[in-house]
Amino acid sequence: MSRRLMLCCAFLILSLMALPVTCLAGPMGKITLKDGSQVYGEIMEMTEGKIQIKALFHEGKDPITIKWSEVTGIDTEDPMSFVLSNGTILQGRPAMTQPGTLDIQTGLLPEPIAVPLDSVLAVNAPAKKAVAFTGNFNFGGSVTSGNTDVKNFSFVGELVARSERLRLSMLGRYLYGENDGKLNVRNAYGTVKMDFFVTKRFYIFTGVLFEQDTFQDLNLRSSFFAGPGYQFIEVGDYSNPYVSKLELHGEVGLGYFDENFKRAEDINYFTGRWAVNFNWPILPSLTLFHQHQGFPSLEKTSDWYVTSQQGIRMNIWENFISTIQINWRYDNSPAPGTKKADTQYILSLGYAFES
User: Fold this and answer.
1) Which end of the chain has fewer CB atoms at under 10 Å, N or C?
2) Which of 235, 241, 233, 281 is nearest to 69 (CA)?
């Protein structure tokens, strides 16, 4: 075999050996696991308690996913970004000095910064959109004809738009029902609220509530309110996948409350307000939620009103969902001839979106 042919063969073999490396464009490195095994390849990102890596010589095209709780260290010569639980973002080259601890060499300090792995919330996290939208629309209904003519319809919709400083929340629902041509349910509810985040957790808000109910003798119930709120738990606070998307915030404030009745005497007063919003996607296909608001009169202790909705939302196929929801309302000073409490049970199908 000629020398030229031997050189060509050697070059071809080396090229094929280097191909998996040169095809990878991201940070090349090593991930060390608790069982002592090591994975080499392109480290993509870590979010929601899982890290993705395009492993060398892996047969599949998609990156493999490893639980962050199983990782004891990362080593790479390429800079990476790390988001810590206290909100700090570090940019630098990581190296494992001891299991469970990273030394991150930044360009600002001569010495590396020691960071415990359990304080890292995200690695190479994708950039957040300027405004993120989440929401859902749900419809329910039934029609029966023959010996009994029954019609029931319901609509529930929710939209949240969130930026770094602002959050717009909108919620609405409408229920209608009739039996043998006689109306037996008709009520509507809507609320709009704007939050301005002064800090990462603390915000001030202003909002409005409107409600109508034919069988509460109610033309319009309305309230205008404002005050401070606090985001106790935000999405991403916890790395555990079962609570990583948990949200909880609470509010207190002041406002004006007005009830305009068809026959009874109208009621209006200055009011306090408290509110709680809880949303917990336990699994990708199962979410628990609870929202309520209370309006106690500042003028007469017997005048107060509470409204709430809670339930379970289940993904049935892609973005299509099914919701089991209970709405409860309590007016301590209702119109004469009407009851204080109303409970609504709603089973609906809908569509959820996130962008």
Assistant:
1) N
2) 241
